[in-house]
Design a protein that fits this description.
CATH topology of the largest domain: Aspartate Aminotransferase, domain 2
Distance between the termini: 59 Å
Radius of gyration: 29 Å
Largest sheet: 7 strands, mixed
Number of helices: 26
CATH class of the largest domain: Alpha Beta
Strand order of the largest sheet: 6-15-14-13-11-7-8
CATH superfamily of the largest domain: Type I PLP-dependent aspartate aminotransferase-like (Major domain)
Bound molecules: pyridoxal-5'-phosphate
Number of domains: 5
Structural class: alpha/beta
Strand content: 15-25%
Length: 767
């Protein structure tokens, strides 16, 4: 749809709107003229403070008009026009700001303010129509600049109302109107979606596969903004970004050094490239939270030792250089690595570095994350290898689902040749790209370029305030009753503020948002629970919010009573609050560009309500009626608190956290490469084997239990004595599901069969 002036309202901030004098009269006339003649919507605001709040809360203004004078009858304004303009300019570089002033005030306006504003209009002498016309000109000029290259061209094309004689078959939406279901879809999404869903045969929009025209311009712009030498838009998720990167650099029998905590797409990357994986093993704390890989693991000695000890890699290949390393940065729980330190180690023995930053595309836009992301601007020496980054723009920035970016920084000597690289890109791309997704990547780039730091600062501050609120709730409860409880947050308890250790919740939120130090993990302030933490190796991302539930003490010992996190998140789902991830005694929520203060209030109120019904041991049939209805014999007559303690008691008795810990420290013997395991699947040389019979067998597919969401076995690894702890852990998960029906959790690669009312895990194994 054509964007008109009406979509970009004018905010006029003046205390004179209602004044019964000449100025008030003229202001009202100006607003009227803008509405009637210029067709602009006018939003009036009567104080600088309110005006700023309105400005802050929305981004659709076409122009801001600020009356410079403080009206005599309102000397109590907490903010001055000068402060207001400075604050607005910091938040938004591009928006036109017009000062309304009188002849006498001109002398009092500081030069810096004149630099910040786009125009000064003399409110008592300029004609109303001149002022309104001038404002409209600013709106029109500004709105034109809002559109980044691809999106702008797409809107322009769509507004030319061409007859489509090309794919997609709905041809601008017309096709949908031939049948009621189609009409419903058309009405739901709106016409612009369909008129922007175009074919590659539209030359005006360039070519994604060839990275030409406006698409190419948009990708180049993203490269500049995200700090890359080259950026590629990928429309089928970071799952595919990872595979494009690997396909471009690895071939059969190459060696890769891979984070065991990798996304499954990297396992598939090993399959399609036919590479030999050697693994980095992340630490984990007593709560089961996945931590960083030790810095020492990145050293050439450690990598060489792993290769030497590997039983699968033929001796003849062991001297070969490692083609690629792949590290998950940040981890799901928000552990971000100091990439500069890691690169210094990896560049000694690895040819290409890959950082999987699916959850972390924003890092470049706030000093909080300095040096902790792949495309960081540190000084690279001439030997540094090429660096690849995969980012799901759609996950935590603002793009449509599956819209991702692939960034490349060339090596000191080795440059990534576009034509060679593009072969891999094309292998994974469709010849019918979805243009709306491209537009969303283009816009996400522009948003971060325009005011990324401001947006990130708001998000970080919001997360910090929520973190502090949670601690304060607990402390206030414990003031009344020292044994009372509330949920905790996985975060520093104390922070060094100017040499003084200060409780986290008492530290100024701006200080916590402005400094990286409080978030950097160290061994002498071990709130994180990871052992032997190296200095300056990694930090916690403040916007990844891990809430902890009671049940584990500071030393990692399971207490007599506890609240499994899955029960809390199940309750929250019932209240319309969907968490990102649930572990045994913690759950993760993400603060992102879409998080609002109101959302946080709803969350805290739901958590407080959970506490109330837990403390009251409310009958489970009231809390989870469906669960009790489905399994009345197990759960009838039980209260919520009792239920939590039953599950907690089971986990304590069977040492679930210890067993998980043990299982994930083992890298099982590899019977075959991941690719060979997959070949067995293709050749149908596989069969389902139940867990109880799995000892001595080789699963052909990867098994990934949630929690913690890390592959416990890769396809081709053997379930033998060495893998005993893995077997034990999976067995415990199976027994738990039978003891507590309704608590079936996700395990990728594992199916359940039922016999005699019992569930059995089974997975595809090589025959
Ligand atoms: C670390 C990591 N890499 C890659 C991906 C895949 O991303 P996408 O969903 O964009 O395909 C995910 C998805 O969860 C992930 O967690």
């Amino acid at each position: 749809m054509e964007i008109t002036n009406r979509e970009w309202p004018v905010l006029i901030i003046s205390g004179q709107f209602d004044a019964q004098n000449d100025e008030g009269y003229r202001l009202r006339q100006l607003a009227e003229q803008l509405k009637e003649v210029q067709d602009c919507r006018v939003i009036p605001s009567f104080t600088y403070e309110d005006g700023y709040e309105i400005f802050r809360s929305r981004s659709d203004f076409g122009c801001i008009v600020v009356d410079w004078d403080i009206p005599e009858e309102d000397p109590g304004e907490a903010t001055t026009a000068e402060e207001l303009i400075v604050k607005m300019r910091i938040r938004h570089q591009g928006i036109p700001i017009i000062l309304l002033t009188g002849r006498r005030e001109m002398d009092r306006i500081p030069a810096e303010i004149l630099r910040d504003v786009n125009d000064c209009l003399w409110k008592t002498s300029e004609t109303i129509s001149f002022m309104a016309g001038r404002i409209e000109t600013h709106v029109v000029d500004y709105v034109r600049t809002v559109y980044p290259p691809f999106f702008g061209a797409m809107v322009q094309y769509s507004n030319e109302f061409k007859f489509a004689w090309h794919t997609p078959g709905h041809m601008g939406g017309e096709g949908f109107l031939r049948s009621p279901a189609g009409v419903a879809l058309f009405k739901f999404f709106g016409e612009s979606v369909f008129r922007s869903d175009l074919s590659v045969s539209v030359p005006e929009l360039g070519s994604l596969l060839e990275h030409s025209g406006v698409v190419g311009d948009a990708e180049k712009n993203s490269a500049r903004v995200f700090g890359a030498d080259q950026t590629y838009y990928v429309l089928n998720g970071t799952s595919n970004v990872n595979q494009i990167i690997w396909r471009s650099q690895l071939v059969r029998d190459d060696i890769a050094f891979v984070d065991r905590n990798c996304h499954k797409s990297l396992n598939y990357a090993m399959v399609i490239t036919d590479a030999y994986p050697v693994y980095m093993i992340p630490r984990r704390n007593k709560r089961g939270i996945i931590g960083p890989v030790r810095l020492s693991e990145f050293s050439p000695e450690s990598i060489q030792r792993k290769i030497k000890e590997d039983k699968l890699i033929p001796e003849s290949l062991k001297g070969n250089e490692v083609k690629m390393s792949a590290l998950t940065n940040s981890t799901y729980d928000g552990v971000c690595y100091n990439v500069v330190n890691i690169k210094k180690q990896l560049e000694k023995s690895v040819e290409n570095l890959h950082f999987d930053e699916a959850w972390y595309a924003y890092a470049r836009f706030h000093p909080m994350y300095k040096d902790h992301y792949g495309m960081t601007d540190d000084k690279l020496d001439e030997n540094h290898p090429p660096i690849f980054c995969s980012q799901s723009t759609h996950k935590l920035l603002t793009a449509f689902s599956q819209a991702s970016m692939l960034h490349i920084k060339n090596g000191g000597k080795i440059k990534i040749n576009h034509d060679e690289f593009n072969e891999s890109y094309m292998m994974h791309g469709s010849t019918s790209p979805q243009y709306i997704m491209i537009a969303s990547l283009d816009v996400a780039t522009r948003m971060m370029d325009d005011n990324g730091q401001t947006m990130m600062n708001d998000i970080i501050l919001g997360a910090i305030r929520l973190r502090q609120k949670v601690v304060n709730i607990e402390k206030n409860l414990q003031k009344k009753n020292k044994n009372d409880w509330f949920f905790g947050m996985w975060q520093p308890r104390e922070v060094n503020v100017k040499g003084k250790m200060t409780p986290f919740e008492q530290v100024d939120a701006d200080f916590l948002a402005d400094h990286q130090d409080p978030w950097v993990m160290s061994s002498d302030n071990n709130w994180h629970g990871f052992e032997e933490m190296e200095e300056n190796h990694c930090m916690l991302d403040p916007i990844k919010l891990t809430f902890t539930t009671p049940g584990i003490d500071d030393h990692g010992q399971m207490q007599d009573e506890g609240i499994p996190a899955s029960i809390v998140t199940e309750y929250l789902i019932g209240k319309g609050i969907v968490c990102e991830k649930t572990d045994y005694y913690s759950f993760l929520l993400l603060n992102s560009l879409g998080t609002t203060e109101a959302k946080q209030g709803t969350l805290l109120s739901a958590m407080l309500r959970f506490k109330d019904i837990y403390d009251a041991d409310t009958p489970l049939c009231e809390v989870f009626p469906e669960l009790v209805g489905a399994y009345p014999d197990v759960y009838r007559g039980v209260g919520l608190k009792q239920h939590c303690n039953d599950i907690h008691g089971y986990w304590k008795e069977h040492k679930i956290l210890q067993k998980m810990q043990d299982a994930f420290q083992v890298i099982p013997d590899q019977g075959m490469k991941p690719s060979e395991a997959y070949h067995q699947v293709v050749r149908k040389n596989v069969e389902f084997v139940e867990l109880d019979q799995m000892m001595g067998r080789t699963p052909a597919v990867m098994m990934v239990p949630y929690p913690p969401g890390i592959p416990i076995m890769m396809g081709g690894e053997m379930m033998n004595e060495k893998a005993g702890p893995i077997f034990e852990y999976l067995k415990l998960r199976q027994d738990f599901e039978n003891a507590f029906p309704g608590y079936e959790s996700e395990i990728h690669g594992v199916e359940r069969t039922e016999r005699d009312g019992k569930k059995f895990f089974r997975t595809l194994c090589v025959k």
